[in-house]
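Why this split exists: single-chain examples teach little about how molecules sit against one another. For that reason, every record in the complexes split bundles all components of an assembly together and asks for one structure covering all of them. Below is a record exactly as it appears in the raw files.
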Amino acid sequence: QQQVKQSPQSLIVQKGGISIINCAYENTAFDYFPWYQQFPGKGPALLIAIRPDVSEKKEGRFTISFNKSAKQFSLHIMDSQPGDSATYFCAASAPNTDKLIFGTGTRLQVFP
Amino acid sequence: NAGVMQNPRHLVRRRGQEARLRCSPMKGHSHVYWYRQLPEEGLKFMVYLQKENIIDESGMPKERFSAEFPKEGPSILRIQQVVRGDSAAYFCASSPNRAAENTIYFGEGSWLTVV
């Protein structure tokens, strides 16, 4: 019940295309859903996050879509660029807890 | 405005040796978290500390692993009698308040290789 399932494991997108990464969870107590971007040899960096009171959040080319009833959320990267090539992790946490439960990651490669 | 500083960045230990990983949180942050990332896997929570206190160690293995965050100095993650399965990237993160209330910021990690 503490798991966050992420797919796909890897994704290849052409420059200018849309990258879509999906996550699903079981624990209905989760109330914070961040996405992290990680480049090789670096630590994860927060990209964008959402709480369940909204169904969508957009920041620049990055959008989170959240479906509370389906217990799913996804990251959309519009106009994907080679510089977006990285591993992306979804995560979730429950109220009054201090730990993030991470998905297994999606390795995104954007080709010019 | 330095970020979360971890050292060493890379550490090689023989089986049975001890590994000590250090983490200095961002300035003004008094909450520290350690996560472990095994190859091709996501990050797994290990422990949450405030100054001089362990708040949540539910993710720490029962044996050989310990963590501290003293009043002065960095947080230390200590692994005794390392085994090959301990080879992983260990990430420290910090926040000004509890993670439940704030974004946490990760360091660049310490890569432990056990040979």
